[in-house]
Amino acid sequence: MAPQYNGVMNFSSPAAAERESDPSDPNVLLSFDRVTLGYGDFVVLANLSLQIKAGEVVALMGGSGSGKTTLMRAATGQLSPQAGVVSVFGQSIVGLGGAGLQSLRQRMGVLFQHGALFTDLNVFENVAFPLREHTTLSEAELTHKVLETLDAVGLKAAAHLKLSAISGGMARRVALARAVVREPELVFYDEPFAGLDPISMGVTARLIRRLSDRLGCASVLITHDVAESFAIADTVYLVGQGELKAHGSPATLGESNDPYVRQFLDGAPDGPVAFDYPVTPDFERWAACKGVGP
Amino acid sequence: MNALAAVGRFTLEKLVVLGQLARFFGMLVTRLGIVVKRPRLVIQQVHFIGNYSLLIILVSGLFVGFVLGLQGYYTLNRYGSEEALGLLVALSLVRELGPVVTALLFAGRAGTSLTAEIGLMKAGEQLSAMEVMAVDPIRRVLVPRFLGGIIAMPILAAVFSMMGILGGWFVGVILIGIDTGAFWSQMQNGVDVFNDVLNGVIKSVVFGVAVTLIALFEGWHCRPTPEGVSRATTRTVVAGSLVVLGLDFVLTAIMFSH
Amino acid sequence: MSNQKVDVWVGLFVMLGIVALLFLALRAGNLSSFSLADTYAVQARFDNIGGLKVRAPVKSAGVVVGRVADIRFDDQTYKAVVTVNLERNFEFPADTSASILTSGLLGEQFIGLDAGGEDRMLVAGDDITLTQSAIILEQLISQFLYGSAEREGAVD
Questions:
Q1: Chains A and B touch, using 3 or more CB pairs below 8 Å
Q2: Cα separation of A214 and A210, whole Å?
Q3: What's the mean pLDDT in A255-262?
Q4: Secondary structure of A163-181 in HEC code, one letter for each residue
Q5: If you measure CA to CA, which chain B residue comes closest to A180?
Q6: Which residues on A lie below 8 Å from B121 (Cβ)?
Q7: Would you state the pLDDT for residue A19?
Q8: pTM of the prediction?
Q9: pLDDT tens-digit profile of C22-61?
Q10: CB–CB contacts below 8 A, B to C
């Protein structure tokens, strides 16, 4: 589908209607059931419930520090929830270790915020890494698969390049190729649009949607970019202030009257998320030392 | 009272680090099987750690040998025993200077590069990415480097000692004019393969384990910021060097006391 | 760097290490004087072994013919029992004498064998009966002082 820029690029799949959320649905690939996440005493998200199904593109949105990346780390099993159950592919991931966790992770792909490419390998070897580690493909088969994946992101002719020779946008696409080379059923994109120019942003958005449709996988976009994600997402979850603030299709959220949602979508400087940092006793003490009033 | 509390806290902190280090060592040892399944990874690390250290070891060994030859001659000459120069140079190198100086240079050159590399991989989320791709980063990244260091150290120490003896020979025989036959025969009579050479090799293996372990530990636990990496590399050199010197004392006491 | 090139360089590195170790063992150390030839064990008792150590050489006419294998103390006769491994192709008469000598003035101590004249040869397990203990410097000095004191006394 060729992009037509008329202010909003719309690549949503046709059936982007409200979906029933049914926990026992075998199509549910990722489910959070009343999950509380935090580090020690510091709680990031409380009582969170969400479901993600195959073929869906879901946008997880929220301001900085709202816990989006924490959510992703809980889904990949890198962080244990303080309460509640996180299920991946119908299996609880809480407390699962060793071989069980490894086999679940092999069905997931993750695109990290800054790519997290292996700096000592070139483009081809980076994308080939998951195949070399987990499969026993012959060199010819492996080469074919890697080049095919690189071709899908438009970088087949860059396979020989070293990482130092490619731009940030290209690196992001290489990381994307590496995340999907084993055709995972669940893919996470951590801030895929951050720091990209408009062209790269459009390209990345189109790639995410196209890959999702082609592989039939569930894609979870963790982002705070409203325009791009609303254009391709089927469902949006908005988190903030330690809880799930809203969820629904992009259209539903766009019509919401919740003050937090409105401030987020409109980009208003002040609202439920205050502009001014709150005064603390530590600050008052420091100000007194400096000889200034709070 | 505050000083006492400070000392107590300091001791506790060091104990915690020691415990972490022991656990880290355990984690590495239980995953050593990678050398059988993916020997190429270990070979690559032997290359990065060993081959790239070769130049500094060769040159340092040679010059240490030069100096030993010169200083040794000045002292022995006073007692008319210049012909024992070969023995002096060889014993000093094989028993002590070879393993210890090589370990100190190793901590500085290979140790810091290991720490920085692991720290930067941590900062760039590469280790996290591996974890999520169901690849154990300890097995894939740390263990090959650990084995590479253990293999490279004794080789480097032996090369250092050899270059030192040759350097001492050059200064003593070629420049100063000591009889070459006396140089080598006194050395051969006095250097015992088991007591001296083998003990030196054992020392260098122990130092290799210690320095590589500390380097990997600091990189693995460092804070993923430029300052964190810088502090970690400093700790690698300082802690590594102190541990080498301490272990040297203990090993010498065990091995060379009759 | 391609895998093959890395392998070659690492191979060279390990080779260099082996060469260095062989150099240290053979050229710097005394491994080359180790004989792997067959040996037979013979015992000798000394009043004082001085600084003799295990693996010290056993020489006859200045040539190494064996090594000291074991040094023990006999608490019945209060003497040191030294077990010596002699190379099998060297036979010594049964009345051979063994003395503890020093190489050079302050060097390592070794056992020197002086062949006797008997027809019967030493076999494994035999004892060397004629032995001379090590020269202890302090005893030498006290002997000298005692001797010179005696002479002084004799003059008076």
A1: yes
A2: 6
A3: 82
A4: HHHCCHHHHHHHHHHHHHC
A5: B133
A6: 119
A7: 40
A8: 0.79
A9: 998 887 666 655 556 678 888 999 988 888 877 788 888 9
A10: 86
